[in-house]
Design brief:
two-stranded antiparallel sheet, 18% helix, single chain, alpha+beta
């Protein structure tokens, strides 16, 4: 109930107004240009746990170009992975352990938090200083940085808030009549 002590009496009203306005804004922006087909179904999640990405596509119906994006993303599988699953970036590096690099096999370990290109798959050969980019981009849903919720989508680091139609903090506590709380 700690969050209830921080909430103001108008929190429920503000939250509902936010939801109403954000959904109206999203709909009007989407329908603004009649040159687009409807959004397609959501794809399967890129991961089964640990947070992944799903996408939906739409088609431009004009012979000219359409304004706006033809793809949208959302997060999915936002449940913790079991400890034995290991790090997602490490799994991608180790997938190259049975592939020769310059005629030699290596055990590859992940290189994380690259400020220049956080969404490339850079790995270090265990016990050496050899660091190699084994793939230009990591799999969708890989975290850009170890202490961040931002994830790589199509080789680009996407701020986690950009993956939602509207964004709520990871845990949003709302008090109803000061007696009950609802965590979203």
């Amino acid at each position: 109930m700690e969050c209830c002590r921080r909430a103001t009496p108008g929190t429920l009203l503000l939250f509902l107004a936010f939801l109403l306005l954000s959904s109206r804004t999203a709909r009007s922006e989407e329908d603004q240009d009649g040159l687009w087909d409807a959004w397609g179904p959501w794809s399967e999640c890129s991961r089964t746990c640990g947070g992944g990405a799903s996408y939906s596509l739409r088609r431009c119906l004009s012979s000219k170009s359409c304004e706006g994006r033809n793809i949208r993303y959302r997060t999915c599988s936002n449940v913790d992975c079991p400890p034995e699953a290991g790090d997602f970036r490490a799994q991608q590096c180790s997938a190259h352990n049975d592939v020769k690099h310059h005629g030699q096999f290596y055990e590859w370990l992940p290189v994380s938090n690259d400020p220049d290109n956080p969404c490339s798959l850079k790995c270090q050969a265990k016990g050496t200083a050899l660091v190699v980019e084994l793939a230009p981009k990591v799999l969708d849903g890989t975290r850009c940085y170890t202490e961040s919720l931002d994830m790589c989508i199509s080789g680009l680091c996407q701020v986690s808030a950009d993956l939602f139609s509207f964004d709520l903090p990871r845990r949003f506590c709302l008090c109803l009549s000061g007696l009950h709380s609802l965590t979203l």
